[in-house]
Write a structure and sequence with these properties.
The chain is an alpha/beta fold. Helices cover 42% and strands 14% of the residues. The protein has a single domain, classed as NAD(P)-binding Rossmann-like Domain (Rossmann fold, 3-Layer(aba) Sandwich). Bound molecules: NADP nicotinamide-adenine-dinucleotide phosphate.
Length: 247
Amino acid sequence: METTLDGKVALVTGGSRGIGAAVAVRLARQGADVAFTFRSDKEQADAVTARIRAEGRRAIPVCADSADPGAVVAAVDQVAETGGRLDILVNNAAVFIVGPLEELTLEQFDQTVAVNVRAPFVASQAAARHLGAGGRIITIGSNMVGRTVFPGFALYSMSKTALTGLTKALGRELGPRAITVNLVNPGATDTEMNPADGPMAGTIRDFIALGHYADPADIAAAVGFLASPDSRYLTGATVNVDGGFTI
Ligand code: NAP
């Protein structure tokens, strides 16, 4: 299997923990130098940096708030400059703001759209200026767009649904440059955002055909494939990695 990413440079947004950290380490294991953004937690960012270096690859941690479009563009440009190139963008950072419709605020709407929708758009736009043939844009959505089983998801589901349109449109637009664009929709994955021992975990588990939460490495494995040369004919696609939640 041609999973090798030797000589490539990847950028993962929100890579200091959870799925983003697993993706960063996975891409390093496949041979890429890996940059990642984080917002606040320097200690966790240092830990991920150490894990990437332990794979024998260069790590480029960048403190950048995805809510700030200028910071997102600067991060992309900094990685291309420091790494000497940019081959793979993984739009992973997101906020998870849920609650009853009547209690959701405009500030929460703006924050959700800024981080979950505008940042992937802005990062993809900036990355497209650096990506060459074989480039990859992979965005992390959510299985909630396929099956919204709980009330209170108006902002989160709305924002994640927008990523399907972004993925298809960019897949079409960047295809002639041999750049592929795909969406990974994870199911319940054991992270700080959705701990496997959280209050809703039992109910969520009942909907999962495989009967258990994903490990962040399960999502990273799909991203690793989409980042690799093996996936070269796959674009504009949505890959559900949800243990059968949306069956
Ligand atoms: P997580 O554990 O909450 O980790 C989020 C990561 O994103 C952290 O590294 C965090 O860094 C970073 N981040 C958050 N806001 C940011 C911002 N404004 N700017 C820059 N970085 C920011 O989340 P996760 O569970 O790994 O989720 C990762 C992705 O998978 C998200 O897109 C999420 O919607 C999606 N997803 C998760 C699940 C699940 O069950 N866990 C299911 C479906 C989809 P700091 O610590 O520095 O803030």
